[in-house]
Automatic annotation (TrEMBL):
This is Leucine-rich repeat-containing N-terminal plant-type domain-containing protein. Residues 31-65 form the Leucine-rich repeat-containing N-terminal plant-type domain. SUPFAM superfamilies: L domain-like. The keyword Isomerase does not apply.
Length: 221
């Protein structure tokens, strides 16, 4: 009697668990987005209000999921006057292709965990208040096509590792406080536009960049 009740209870729990999973999709993404929200300290336009439990996270403002699976593929929160840190949980959105956070007031460092986003094609962080160094881990985003970090307060060197981003077409890091020399970027064979003005970058640039066959626009100094 008791054991049969237990079996039924376990069965019910399993069904409930499966149902919850079907409704909520991948819990990992939900938790990642909730942590992202938790690190936002000011939201004057109230965009994050829609990020609540009454609707599925695929319906939250700025979130786009893939058609078949509940995997976040786009997070677009640009120009929302948001203030706060960028949560390291962002690294758990493993299917994200487009991450647009430009023109806000995100501060603190760019989390190293972005390096876990192997499907990321567009990463826009420009026009925020980010500081710290550019994580060399971004070089693990091997599908990156566009990387913009301009108009922040990042310091240190341009990581040499970025030179392995063979798909990268657009790289903009202008108006920061980067220093040191431009690394050998000869492998950035897709690079069409590179902007690095208003930093403290020094040294010979043509060494690496001269090899880039697709380069049509370059702004340095
Ligand atoms: C939750 O989000 C929905 C839209 O997604 C919105 O209509 C509703 O007002 C929100 N609830 C709260 C408590 O903010
Ligand atoms: C930046 O964001 C502000 C506030 O949302 C908006 O008014 C402005 O048009 C945006 N600028 C650009 C270049 O997108
Ligand atoms: C998500 O990312 C954070 C920070 O990188 C990590 O601590 C956490 O264990 C990850 N996994 C899940 C399932 O939330
Ligand atoms: C949920 O997402 C994590 C991180 O991408 C992945 O490892 C895991 O397999 C996913 N689980 C399901 C059931 O899709
Ligand atoms: C840096 O990127 C590597 C490769 O994707 C990853 O294994 C590692 O977890 C990342 N570091 C952090 C702190 O997320
Ligand atoms: C450039 O490519 C060559 C050949 O694939 C490789 O040996 C070298 O390590 C790469 N350099 C960088 C900076 O990624
Ligand atoms: C930029 O860096 C220099 C030297 O590293 C430092 O003296 C200066 O205060 C920095 N400027 C900003 C705006 O962070
Ligand atoms: C070369 O760069 C341009 C942008 O300036 C881009 O549209 C094009 O796709 C790039 N070509 C290759 C082969 O990557």
């Amino acid at each position: 009697m008791l054991s049969s009740f237990c079996i039924q209870a376990v069965f019910l729990l399993m069904c409930f668990g499966l149902a919850t999973h079907a409704i909520e999709g991948n819990e990992t993404y939900r938790l990642a987005l909730l942590d992202f929200k938790a690190k936002i300290t000011e939201d004057p336009l109230g965009i994050m209000r829609s990020w609540n439990e009454s609707v599925h996270f695929c319906q939250w403002s700025g979130v786009t999921c893939g058609r078949q699976h509940q995997k976040v593929t786009v997070l677009d929160l640009h120009s929302q006057q948001l203030v706060g840190l960028i949560s390291p949980h962002i690294g758990n959105l493993s299917f994200i292709r487009v991450l647009l956070l430009q023109n806000n007031s995100f501060n603190g460092e760019i989390p190293q965990e972005v390096g876990r986003l192997g499907r990321l094609e567009t990463l826009r962080l420009d026009s925020n208040s980010l500081d710290g160094e550019i994580p060399s881990n971004i070089s693990s985003c091997s599908n990156l096509i566009s990387l913009t970090i301009g108009f922040n307060s990042v310091v240190g060197k341009l990581p040499e590792e970025l030179g392995s981003l063979s798909m990268l077409q657009f790289l903009a890091v202008q108006r920061n406080n980067l220093s040191g020399s431009i690394p050998p970027f000869g492998n950035l064979s897709s690079l069409g536009k590179f902007s690095a003005t208003q930093n403290n970058l020094v040294g010979s640039i043509l060494d690496g960049l001269g090899l880039l066959k697709n380069l049509s626009y370059i702004a340095l100094g």
